[in-house]
Amino acid sequence: MHPDYLEKVLNAQVYDVAVETPLELAGNLSARVGNKIILKREDMQPVFSFKLRGAYNKIASLSAEKLKRGVICASAGNHAQGVALSAAQLGCRAVIVMPTSTPGIKIDAVRRRGGEVVLFGDSFDEACAHALELEKLEKLTFVHPFDDPEVIAGQGTVAMEILRQHSRHNGPIHAIFCAIGGGGLAAGVAAYIKRLQPQIKVIGVETFDADAMKQSIAAGKRVRLEQVGLFADGTAVKLVGEETFRLCKEHLDEVILVDTDAICAAIKDVFEDTRSILEPAGALAVAGAKEYARQHKLKDKNLIAVTSGANMNFDRLRFVAERAEFGEQREAVFAVTLPEKPGAYKKFLALIGKRNITEFNYRYNTEAEAHVFVGVQVAKREESLKLVDSLQKHGYPTLDLTDDEMAKNHIRHMVGGHAPQVCNNGMSELLYRFEFPERPGALMNFLTQMSTGWNISLFHYRNHGADYGRVLVGMQVPASDMGQFREFLKNLGYAHWDESQNPAYKLFLG
Questions:
Q1: To the nearest whole number, what is the mean pLDDT of the chain?
Q2: Cα torsion through 107, 109, 115, 117, rounded to 10
Q3: Residue 348 φ then ψ, to 5°
Q4: Per-residue pLDDT reduced to its tens digit, 20-69
Q5: Which CATH class is domain 329-508?
Q6: CATH number of the structural domain 53-145
Q7: Cα 71 to the center of its chain, rounded Å
Q8: Which of 53, 106, 364, 390 could form a disulfide with 154 if both were Cys (CB 3.0 to 4.6 A apart)?
């Protein structure tokens, strides 16, 4: 006999610790995708995640005897904080087993909330196995992160709030989007929604490299993944729950998949509308709503995305910012071969036109050619394809690297190398660091003022979102031209530094 989840959700005890989070229209994002994207702000919970709901409902349902003995869980993320805070609220001991590789910031967060942290194993699976041993040894109650009816019902209160709150918005709900890791949130939301308003679609969202629920539903049984991608670590689950699988298989309308770039774009979208920064798993539903609207060519529909968490590691923000433009298909990356002759560089820039160059890595290769790794801001993917065609037609062999993971993650930062040929013919390579004003034409101004007899042998630039660009330039200048070169620097008016004797340059690029 299966539980009655409508009854369980209505009777769930969550509000001693959880808050009713707002339902907010993402105005900028909605205008861009042509549908109303409404955010259910679970990132605003006391532990910055919906996980608190299920954890508290489970612990609050325990008998006085079990509460007295305490609870245990295995988690390195949001579930750990939810269990620790819930147990503290109920005056109950909480043991949290975390892998030894867990970042200190997460360990400290759990300890601050009263959890007893036990570090064990190199992976979540090893930590979980140890937690189950301790459960028996110390007669504790295991609080599962997703595969438990009380946990599922606690997460289902998100859906209860959505239906109540949306009555204040115009028009019916077309679909609700939930991130899926183990499936607790999607199962709870879908079970509640389909009992009361079955016409509303409930869509699960997973990443391409952690799609255990989609594969399981397709196979008609739970499928264990051999490995999962870890960017959206909050949903990196190899095997979904038994009960969550049953509910998702029965009630979900679809599971949609998105990639890392789409998640980064969604984090940026939410930031631009709310000034809040979601963790990757927390932005998964937003990315899914955008992709679903695109695939189904939706217009003017109400789409609700549960922003499920905001426990973002600060050091990931650089990567997110780097990749967000790719996710929106607003930046294209190319490898271009330039003929090593005067004017080729300028002609190449003329072909790029008034588009904003976001990155430029250039290195002399042979006397005949040089290789360029360039990023260009575009309005949409079709524009980048036309640009490739234009460059090819004008004699610049071009590789489109926009969808090449290795190029985006590694090659872009490794372009260059030693080039002993640049010191041939009585010329040495001068290396200068510049700060260009971040405005259209700054680079062309630099090239126009520069003598046509000086060859650029190295060039690196990256837009950092500041009001100036940091640029590194190598130039082959004859000794007889040094007076003219100093005059060029003076007239240019850009802040600059001579790095020709920099030891790092000599070691890696000279």
A1: 88
A2: 0
A3: -60, -45
A4: 999 999 999 999 999 999 999 999 999 999 999 999 999 999 999 999 99
A5: alpha beta
A6: 3.40.50.1100
A7: 33
A8: 53
- Extract the tokens encoding 389: 């065609």
Choice among 8, 36, 40, 51 that is catalytic: 51
How would residue 406 be classed by pLDDT, with cut points 50, 70 and 90? low
> Distance (Å, rounded) from C-alpha 339 to C-alpha 328?
32
Is residue 308 flagged as an active site residue?
A: yes
How far apart, in whole angstroms, are the C-alpha atoms of residue 31 and residue 44?
24
Do the domains spanning 5-49+150-322 and 53-145 agree at the CATH topology level?
A: yes
* Rounded CA separation 395/14 (Å): 65
Strands (E), 86-221: 94-98, 116-119, 141-142, 173-179, 201-207
Which residue, among 264, 270, 280, 409, has the nearest Cα to 327 in the 3D structure?
264
Closest CA to 361 of 460, 436, 458, 456: 460
Q: Where are the domains of the chain?
A: 5-49+150-322, 53-145, 329-508
Mean pLDDT of 192-214: 96
Q: 456-492: b or e for each residue (b if 16 or more CB lie within 10 Å)?
A: bbbbbbbbeeeeebebbbbbbbeeebeeebeebeeee
d(CA 83, CA 99): 16
- Tokens representing 417 are 């190398």
Query: Is residue 268 annotated as part of the catalytic site, yes or no?
Result: no
Taking the CA of residue 418 as centre, how many other CA atoms within 13 Å lie in the half-sphere pointing to its CB?
Answer: 4
Task: From the candidates 61, 216, 276, 308, give the one annotated as an active-site residue.
Answer: 308
Biggest CA pair distance of the chain: 92
What pLDDT does 411 receive?
64
Instruction: Answer whether CATH 3.10.350.10 is correct for domain 5-49+150-322.
Output: no
From residue 152, give the alpha-carbon distance in Å to each of 53, 179, 210, 244, 406.
9, 14, 21, 8, 39
Query: In the structure encoding, which two tokens stand for residue 176, read together?
Result: 């609700």
Question: Of 458, 441, 450, which is closest to residue 492 (Cα–Cα)?
Answer: 450
Q: How confident is the model at residue 13 (pLDDT cuts 50, 70, 90)?
A: very high
Q: How many CA atoms lie within 13 A of 496 on its CB side?
A: 18
* Residue linked to tokens 């087993």: 97
